[in-house]
Specification:
It is globular and about 65 Å long. The strands form two sheets. Strands 1-7-6-5-4-2-3 form a seven-stranded mixed beta sheet, sandwiched between helices. Strands 8-9-11-10 form a four-stranded antiparallel beta sheet. The chain has three domains: about 100 residues, no CATH class; about 250 residues, Type I PLP-dependent aspartate aminotransferase-like (Major domain) (Aspartate Aminotransferase, domain 2, 3-Layer(aba) Sandwich); about 110 residues, Alpha-Beta Complex (Aspartate Aminotransferase, domain 1). The protein contains 16 helices and eleven strands. Helix content is about 40%, strand content about 10%. With about 500 residues, it is an alpha/beta fold. α9 links the parallel β2 and β3. The protein binds pyridoxal-5'-phosphate (PLP).
Length: about 500
């Protein structure tokens, strides 16, 4: 007897071992009736827009209460199904209130993008279509190639430029290093290993930790990255760099990778990229730029000249998830000559063979340009962000956040209780509360932790010339001038109060 939705239909189900339902229905993860899941999906979308519209009213961040934290630290693998509405209620109660908070206009720590609603919808559509961008000939690949083409155009790189969207600049820097390593040590190094090739690279002392990390992961050792002293403006000292290259050559080593940083993580310094490009060309060294957030300066009419020289790079790594406000995660690697990327990563395998037509056409495939085979449709959220807002608007966000930093730096300098610890060159301000009463490192660390725990603001800290700094990075497009008034009042208030006890 057929029951449920099939009752009365003119077919028999004798072929199925379970006479009530065909196998395809019993094993599919799709619901038999979409009504309730559809309604839940609509409710989630409504809740999300309410939440985004009301971000400012809520705390920046809240610590997970111990009971909720404990709920994630225990429990068995859920073997049985749960009701989807209950799962969503659980998300709202135990997850949503306690995530990082970087969407909030008063999140000012590290270098975090704020995300944007159009990009969020792109992510939803990407998940809905579940396209694998490892390769094959389909529209997803065309979208990613368009995003890479736009990125090269933004930075003035030529039409030969290849690239990939990756998790972030950390992996983008690693891909660049592997391209440079293969170019210097030759294709045989991919089979035989790097041996004692003596490959060495260079970056300023302000280099992000992921660059020595890339040397480590690439089997070169982080010690093969020379960290060159910086000048008074926190830029790589070119004279010291040249001396180190000559010393390495004299020692029989092979200089093969020169990193210029466009926007150092501590203070936002930009190396002299034109001078580095000329030096790299003279010396036959691969010139890479880590422009994790700085690349977006290219969209600011007043600040794009700060990047002069980036157009001469052999490769550039940057993030869409920072200043470009694309939801996490999305970084980008651009390689001036895509052939260098293919030389470093392509592999021939029968099960991924090229075909002249059909779905297996459309070479080169992304899987031959980097380390990942299966890849998601990251490009869609970037494409939708750029299409929705336009690059001029993103440039205006960059300018606005730099203006916020200028304003904060001026007001810090004007305050008798505050001390600027580094020049505010871009969107980052490093300063501290200083009432000349001692124990300033502990006091400023406490002020930052208090601000975070109160949910008022989330700056972070760093060390500048041996002193602990409150580090404020303006990245979020939602931050306004008025937020600075409240930030300064809160810092001074907490500093003064701490001295009373
Ligand atoms: C953020 C950052 C990185 C690392 O990028 P991820 O996207 O976090 O992997 C590298 N370099 C600089 C200068 C950065 O600011």
């Amino acid at each position: 007897m057929v029951q449920g939705p099939w009752a009365g239909l003119p077919f028999t189900l004798a072929a199925s071992p379970d006479k009530r339902q065909p196998m395809t229905q019993t094993n599919s993860l799709d619901p038999q009736d979409w009504t309730s899941l559809r309604a839940l999906g609509h409710r989630m979308i409504d809740d999300i827009f309410d939440n985004l519209a009301g971000l400012r009213e809520g705390p920046v961040w809240q610590e997970m209460p111990p009971a909720i934290r404990a709920g994630f630290a225990e429990g068995a693998l859920p073997a049985a199904p749960s009701d989807e509405a209950d799962i969503y209620a659980r998300f709202q109660q135990t997850i949503a209130p306690y995530v990082t908070g970087n969407r909030h206009p008063r999140f000012l720590g590290w270098v975090h993008g704020g995300g944007n609603a159009a990009g969020m919808l792109g992510e939803l559509l990407a998940a809905a279509y579940n396209a694998n961008l490892g390769g094959r000939d389909h529209a997803g690949i065309a979208v990613e190639r368009q995003v890479i083409h736009w990125s090269a155009q933004m930075l003035g790189l030529p039409a030969t430029t290849g690239g990939l969207l990756v998790t972030g600049t950390s992996i983008a820097n690693l891909i660049a290093l592997i391209c440079a390593r293969t170019k210097k040590l030759g294709p045989a190094s991919r089979i035989e290993g790097i041996g004692a090739g003596g490959f060495v690279g260079y970056a300023s002392a302000g280099v992000h930790r992921c660059v020595p990390g890339a040397f480590d992961m690439a089997g070169l050792g982080s010690g093969a990255l020379r960290r060159i002293a910086v000048d008074a403006a926190y830029r790589i000292d070119i004279t010291a760099l040249e001396a180190q290259i000559q010393a390495d050559r004299a020692a029989g080593l092979q200089p093969g990778f020169l990193v210029g940083t466009a926007g150092t993580v501590d203070v936002g310094a930009i190396d002299d990229l034109t001078a580095l490009a000329a030096l790299a060309r003279r010396e036959g060294i691969w010139f890479h730029v880590d422009a994790a957030f700085g690349a977006l300066l290219a969209l600011s009419p007043t600040r794009k000249s700060m990047l002069a020289g980036i157009e001469q790079a052999d490769s550039v790594a940057f993030d869409f998830h920072k200043w470009a406000q694309v939801p996490y995660d999305c970084g980008c690697i651009l390689v001036r000559d895509q052939n260098d990327q293919l030389a470093a990563f392509s592999q021939a395998t029968n099960y991924l063979a090229a075909a002249p037509r059909g779905l297996a056409g459309g070479q080169p495939w992304p899987c031959d340009l980097g380390p990942d085979l299966s890849r998601g449709f990251r490009a869609l959220k970037v494409w939708m962000t750029l299409m929705t807002h336009g690059s001029d608007k993103l440039g205006a966000v960059v300018d606005h956040t730099c203006a916020l930093a200028q304003n904060l730096a001026q007001r810090v300098q004007a305050s008798p209780k505050l001390e600027l610890l580094a020049p505010a060159m871009l969107n980052i301000v490093c300063f501290r509360y200083n009432d000349s009463a001692g124990r300033l490192d502990e006091l400023n660390a406490d002020i930052v932790a208090d601000l975070q725990e109160s949910g008022e603001f989330a700056p972070s800290t760093t060390i500048i010339n041996g002193q602990l700094a409150i580090r404020v990075a303006f990245v979020n497009h939602r931050t306004e001038m008025a937020d600075i008034d409240d930030l300064l009042a809160a810092i001074i208030g907490k500093g003064e109060k701490a001295r009373l006890f």
